[in-house]
Amino acid sequence: MAIVRKPVEKDLMHVTKYAVDYTWTKLNKDDTQSAKRLKNKKDWAADHLFNENPNCRLLVAEENGNVVGYGFGEASQDNEDTIGKIEEVFVDEFYRREGIGSELVQSLLKWLRDRQVDRIEIGHSSEDTMTQGFINSIGFSPDGIFSPDGKIDKKNR
Predict the structure, then answer these.
(1) What are the tens digits of pLDDT across the range 60-71?
(2) Could you tell me the domains of the chain?
(3) Closest CA to 18 of 65, 51, 67
């Protein structure tokens, strides 16, 4: 079982690597802006590792003393509703299918519930069937909606 925790300074290299790997999987390889997006993601990792914004949460998963993945969520206001969003979850390929991604998501869901959000969404849908299977297995509908009480939020579909 992995330990899910807030990152510390020594985690920067791992979070940066995994954030770039995550971005690489989402890029259109023919896009001329790919190199710029990857560089921006390096900056994003450093910015979010040390960010004290109470509406954002970066977590890392640690296995046997090594960082093996990360998750990022945020809460924002949309009209009268507070929307929680799980933006990114990435686990090192070697550690996948061991429940680590689920542990990261559960920790982010708890953080969002503690913030009393009205609705929770997954940040990115995927055409990849393995990723979509994971998203569905953790309680999100195909359109990426999840409610804080664990029931699909039909009013916002």
Answers:
(1) 999 999 999 999
(2) 3-156 (3.40.630.30)
(3) 67
